[in-house]
């Protein structure tokens, strides 16, 4: 089922995967021949994902908090194989739907593509028309009904809901490998939730949501600008989850997308990232994009074309200092008066009475944190104060959970374990990561040049709340 798309991988070599099966632990394994040893697909350098004890040991033995952040990022980020499997999931669905509808394609977007996703996170998919493959010379023409022009927006919303309802029925009854189909059609962006059994991936499918595609491009662009950005975002997301500021289901709390915008806005204040306004100012004719609802999604896609004063930042703070400064910045931020806007790169007067206002950088009329209430905002501020105290009082020679371990509530069970130097393997991995990061800080990876983007996060999903 997976051939050329999985030809090579930095950690595992798999020539052909004919079938995916679950082992007793719920991991995905490749089919075996003769007496070959079973190998989990979720491995790195031949080793399975670290459990909590192994994670605690690696973080405990790190030389510094900055080293802990890099180690955590390497443990949590999506591997190349997992990204490939997510593209395979999209291709699988596209093959089935192409038998029913002409000229469509399904693209992955969101955290799985923008570089901020963690292992085994949900996969966001969008179904869009594929106008590039129309064969004008063909004698066979696919006929379909046009959208009504009267009250187009209302008709478009209703037709999208009905269309997704038809797709959900087809997926539930006819497409193999798809389980637990749930229809969430009354949300602002209607979606279908389901589990893709072959890769054990939870998926969200929407339709014609091009704004999300362009948002993924923007977040991926920011992630590529500086080697410190993705490790910092992953660490702060992990901190928020461990402190129960974020949950896997929506509610009156902050989600990963606005939390990521908080980090990016903070880095703009540090002069590490340019504002979206600057990216739009230096955009070229090739960068012009417009979503289906008329939203301007034009911004510079090639950061190498930025002026030198924007391209090479003068801020060389360590990850440890950036983490501390992030908590300090938002512990004293005037959320009552000001809002967050990475489009302008400066704080703005709150245009609404919401507890927390974070402007959607592409759809500026939307507040992506509108759901957050005052109680949850106060909890965020309180947790930032707690984080500052934890970082100021940490002692790596006397504590079993020093540095970010205390922030993530990770404990070293072996109380008698003496702190050792970072292992040679960890040191080598960190040095290689820093070297590669500096070399590729402003080179956008080829695998993100497909139409991608964010946002199970920009989508305001309606799910069952806890």
List keywords for this structure.
disordered C terminus; Beta Polymerase, domain 2; 14 helices; two-stranded antiparallel ribbon; transferase; MTPAP-like_central; alpha+beta; 466 residues; Poly(a)-polymerase, middle domain; NT_sf; five-stranded mixed beta sheet
Describe this structure in words.
It is a single chain. By secondary structure, the chain is of the alpha+beta class. Helices cover 37% and strands 10% of the residues. The protein folds into three domains: 1-43, no CATH class; 80-140 and 151-210, Beta Polymerase, domain 2, CATH 3.30.460; 211-411 and 440-448, Poly(a)-polymerase, middle domain, CATH 1.10.1410.10. The protein is built from 14 helices and eleven strands. A five-stranded mixed beta sheet has the order 5-6-9-8-7, sandwiched between helices. A two-stranded antiparallel ribbon has the order 1-2. The protein has a two-stranded antiparallel sheet with strand order 3-4. Helix 2 (65-76) crosses helix 7 (229-242). The model is unreliable at 1-39, 147-155, 415-424 and 438-466 (pLDDT under 50).
Structure, briefly:
GO terms for molecular function: metal ion binding; poly(A) RNA polymerase activity. The protein is of the alpha+beta class and 466 residues long.
Number of strands: 11
User: What about the largest sheet?
Assistant: 5 strands, mixed
Shape: globular
Kindly provide the name of the CATH class of the largest domain.
Mainly Alpha
- The pLDDT mean sits at 79
Termini separation (Å)? Answer: 37 Å
Following the backbone from N to C, one meets helices and strands in this order, namely EEEEHHHEHEHEEEHHHHHHEEHHH
Strand content: 5-15%
Structural class: alpha+beta
Read across the widest sheet, the strand sequence of neighbours is: 5-6-9-8-7
The percentage helix is 25-40%
Name given to the CATH architecture of the largest domain = Orthogonal Bundle
CATH topology of the largest domain: Poly(a)-polymerase, middle domain
In the predicted model, the low-confidence regions spanning at least 5 consecutive residues are 1-39, 147-155, 415-424, 438-466
Number of continuous helical runs: 14
**Gyration radius, in Å:** 23 Å
Number of domains: 3
Domain PAP-associated: 319-356
Protein name: Poly(A) RNA polymerase, mitochondrial
InterPro entries: MTPAP-like_central, NT_sf, PAP_assoc
Organism: Atta colombica
């Amino acid at each position: 089922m997976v051939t050329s798309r999985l030809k090579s991988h930095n950690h595992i070599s798999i020539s052909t995967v004919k079938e995916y099966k679950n082992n007793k632990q719920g991991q995905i394994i490749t089919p075996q021949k003769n007496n070959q040893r079973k190998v989990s697909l979720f491995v790195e350098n031949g080793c399975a994902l670290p459990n909590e004890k192994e994670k605690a040991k690696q973080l405990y033995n790190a030389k510094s908090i900055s080293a802990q952040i890099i180690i955590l990022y390497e443990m949590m980020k999506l591997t190349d194989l997992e990204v490939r499997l997510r593209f395979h999931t999209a291709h699988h669905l596209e093959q089935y739907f192409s038998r029913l509808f002409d000229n469509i394609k399904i693209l992955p977007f969101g955290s799985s593509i923008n570089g901020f996703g963690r292992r085994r996170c949900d996969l966001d998919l969008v179904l869009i028309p594929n106008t590039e493959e129309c064969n004008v010379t063909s004698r066979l023409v696919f006929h379909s009904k046009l959208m009504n022009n009267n009250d187009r927006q209302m008709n478009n919303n209703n037709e999208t809901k009905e269309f997704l309802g038809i797709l959900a029925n087809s997926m539930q009854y006819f497409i193999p490998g798809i389980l637990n189909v749930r229809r969430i059609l009354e949300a602002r962006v209607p979606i279908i939730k389901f589990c893709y059994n072959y890769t054990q991936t939870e998926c969200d499918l929407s339709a014609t949501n091009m704004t999300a595609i362009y948002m993924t491009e923007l977040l991926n662009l920011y992630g590529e600008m500086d080697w410190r950005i993705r490790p910092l975002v992953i660490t702060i997301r992990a901190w928020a989850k461990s402190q129960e500021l974020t949950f896997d289901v929506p509610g009156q709390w902050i989600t990963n997308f606005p939390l990521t915008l908080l980090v990016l806005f903070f880095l703009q204040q540090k002069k590490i990232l340019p504002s979206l306004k600057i990216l739009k100012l230096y955009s070229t004719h090739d960068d012009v994009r417009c979503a289906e609802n008329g939203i301007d999604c034009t911004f510079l896609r090639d950061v190498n074309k930025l002026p030198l004063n924007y391209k090479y930042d003068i801020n060389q703070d360590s990850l440890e200092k950036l983490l501390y400064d992030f908590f300090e910045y938002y512990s004293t931020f005037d959320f009552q008066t000001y809002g967050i806007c990475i489009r302008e790169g400066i704080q703005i007067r709150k245009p609404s009475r919401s507890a927390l206002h974070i402007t959607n950088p592409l759809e500026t009329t939307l507040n992506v944190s509108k759901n957050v209430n005052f109680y949850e905002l106060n909890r965020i501020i309180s947790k930032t104060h707690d984080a500052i105290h934890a970082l100021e009082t940490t002692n790596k020679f006397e504590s079993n959970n020093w540095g970010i371990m205390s922030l993530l509530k990770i404990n070293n069970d072996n109380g008698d374990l003496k702190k050792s130097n970072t292992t040679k393997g960890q040191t080598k991995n960190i040095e290689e990561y820093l070297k590669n990061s500096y070399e590729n800080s402003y080179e956008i990876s080829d695998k993100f040049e497909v139409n991608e983007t964010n946002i199970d996060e920009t989508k305001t999903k309606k799910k069952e709340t806890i």
